[in-house]
Amino acid sequence: MPSMSQEVDGSRIPELAAIARRALALARDAGASEAEADVSLQKGLNATVRLGEVDTIEYQRDRGLGVTVYFGHRKGSASTADLRENAVRDTVAKACAIARYTAEDECSGLADPEELARDIPDLDLDHPWDIEPEQAIEIARIAEDAGRAVDPRITNSEGSTISSHRGVRLYANSHGFLGGYPSTNHSLSVVLLAEDAAGMQRDYWYASSRDPAELEPPEAVGRRAGERAVARLGARRIATRKAPILFAPEVARGFVGHFLGAIRGGSQYRKSTFLLGAAGQQVFPSFVQMQERPHLRGAPGSSPFDSEGVVTRDRDLVRDGVVQGYVLSSYSARKLGLRTTGNAGGVHNLLVAPTDPGLDHAALLKRMGTGLYVTELMGQGVNGVTGDYSRGATGFWIENGVPAFAVQEVTIAGNLKEMYRHIVGFGSDVDARGAVRTGSVLIEEMTIAGE
Questions:
Q1: Domain range for residue 437?
Q2: pLDDT, tens digit (0-9, with 9 covering 90-100), for 236-248
Q3: Staple partner for 371: which of 239, 244, 311, 442, CB 3.0–4.6 Å?
Q4: How many domains does the chain have?
């Protein structure tokens, strides 16, 4: 195998391909009927400034090889952070040794050859940022200063952090698939604390993009964090009641994520989901549309193939409120007697369509009239089997469509199945910073436990 250079970019793909091919050859020589190898390199810079002073600077370089072998339907996996010949040989040997002791599972094995990606498009995922630590510190400082200048009641900071990461990953298997590509991710976040006679409140904001040129300006990120922290001053509890709930876009992403977890193949074949057998069922109101778009250029969830090399394709996951299918890997698809959907490793850019293009944040507040606007959730009180939902929440009490005061230390509760059925609308204020793109979501009614 060639010696490893220091760069982490597309030029490394031939070297990674040589390592993957070597691992596959060793597995074949050891008697494996099938094998797959995943090789990656990553580097990153993180810099944090707190109260104008440098808090931390971290530089990281990671490399890894994961090997999975199959002896018939017996599976073994092993991994290493050492890509030298001896380490590759040892890793394959360990995977083979494990496979010989595992039980037969007729659903295990590589993805079927006809499912694998043949053409691998360039999805514009690689935008390196040659940022020096001094420059990163300056940007972080600008963001924090802008946030602290919003209001004299901002008295402290948990820091402003800038992160820049670049990696290259290659996947190969014994069906002849070999594909790899470089990608980047850059982010800036600010966490600030505001204080008045009633106490202290904390809030944050962040920007994230594959392309540093598309990051929100540091001044804007800092100001948003500061404004959010100040807006929470004077927060209080409210009396227990039932009321409409509006989830902010960054909170709505998790709300949609619970649906994705419920229709994952693993949840379906284990029968551990509140949406068992949901394909073809009306789970949402008829205006709800969700599409997976894996090939959006430069998007955070884009990928030409999944973690098994299966081609990713556009598809409707929810059409007119009806679930169109599940989120499947090859293994879970076989367990269910279905075909993989190219979702080994998760969904790729799930787009939740706004109910109405004109239904922005202000319009949703007006439609809600009186209720709770939730900007942050706490706790893990979601039961994926029953759908029971109970989480701590903070946000704002809304009266006549406008914020009346900040709310804290309340719990919102309901059942996800009922919550999905009683969605009033998804907003056009779409948050595009993650693999799930959604606007705010208004729910007709939930229980709020307070005083």
A1: 241-449
A2: 999 999 999 999 9
A3: 244
A4: 2
